[in-house]
Amino acid sequence: MNRRTLLAGLAAMVAAPSLALAQEPKAPSAGQILRQLDAAPRRRIRPEERVTIQEFRRRQDLRRAAPSIDIQAINFEFGSATIPRSEYRKVREIADALSRLAQRRRGALFLFEGHTDAVGSRESNQILSERRAASLKRVLVTEFGIPSRMIETVGYGEDFLLVDTPYEDWRNRRVTIRRIDEFVR
């Protein structure tokens, strides 16, 4: 091994941890979450066009029009829907934003969408995505006092990948929060 190869190898070892850290998702602040969810919908819905929550869950066009934010920073154990206590600081940011929105907007309503990557069976990913969305709701309600009536949940499994790959990708494992009060009756 020559000196140049050795130095290149050492440089790669030093850079690798910093590259891994650069790829870790950053948790949004309460202010960032608040700004995203308090934004105007991309499309206005007349009162007679409002739909049920069940229909809203099925209609991708309406979901895309609702103010939303992807939360990719909550780290679940592989195959688990439990939110570790070490992640509660991140959940507190969500709770603060939802509380502030509830004060600003009477009748605020949010849909938590669970998503997974494409590793594993379609059925297990569907179940896991539903459990993760419900888990976030449960922690917000029981630990942070967010009213249960403000949050609906749904799981989409691997149906709406951000990165179209059959492999593991952390960007696909997320909960999307949408403010839906202007869309449902």
Would you kindly provide a written description of the structure presented here, covering whatever features stand out?
- The protein is an alpha+beta fold and 185 residues long.
- The chain is built from 6 helices and 4 strands.
- It has helices spanning 3-23, 30-38, 53-58, 60-65, 88-104, 122-144; strands at 68-71, 110-115, 151-155, 174-179.
- A 4-stranded mixed sheet has the order 1-4-2-3.
- α6 (122-144) links the parallel β2 (110-115) and β3.
- α2 crosses α5.
- The N and C termini lie far apart (70 Å).
Mean pLDDT across the residues is 86
End-to-end Cα distance = 70 Å
How is the biggest beta sheet arranged? 4 strands, mixed
The sequence of SSEs as H and E is HHHHEHEHEE
Question: Which percent range describes the beta-strand content?
Answer: 5-15%
Basic shape: globular
Question: Radius of gyration from the CA trace?
Answer: 19 Å
Helix share of residues?
Answer: 40-55%
Structure summary, number of beta strands: 4
Strand order of the largest sheet: 1-4-2-3
Descriptive labels:
185 residues; alpha+beta; 44% helix
Write the layout of secondary structure elements.
Blueprint: H1 3-23, H2 30-38, H3 53-58, H4 60-65, E1 68-71, H5 88-104, E2 110-115, H6 122-144, E3 151-155, E4 174-179
